[in-house]
Design a protein that fits this description.
two-stranded antiparallel ribbon; 48% helix; mainly alpha; 69 residues
Length: 69
């Protein structure tokens, strides 16, 4: 019988990035990430109308397309 991983662990690993955590992941400035969002190069969404987040799928798309970091 295969080992099942609790869904909350898997979901936690795929939490969206904040501009700060994405900047740390890419080793660039938070301002650069925010500029990419402002130019429409990366799609972001707001949580609660204030917190800016970037989905994993969007980061993956940008990286695969060879986006500038």
């Amino acid at each position: 019988m295969p080992l099942r991983v609790p869904s909350m662990i898997v979901a936690d690993e795929r939490r969206p990035f904040s501009p700060k955590t994405l900047a740390e992941h890419w080793e660039c400035s938070e301002r650069h990430v925010r500029n990419l969002i402002a130019r429409g190069e990366i799609r972001a969404f707001r949580l609660g109308g204030k917190l800016l987040r970037i989905a994993w799928d969007e980061v993956d798309r940008f990286e695969r397309e060879g986006g500038s970091k």
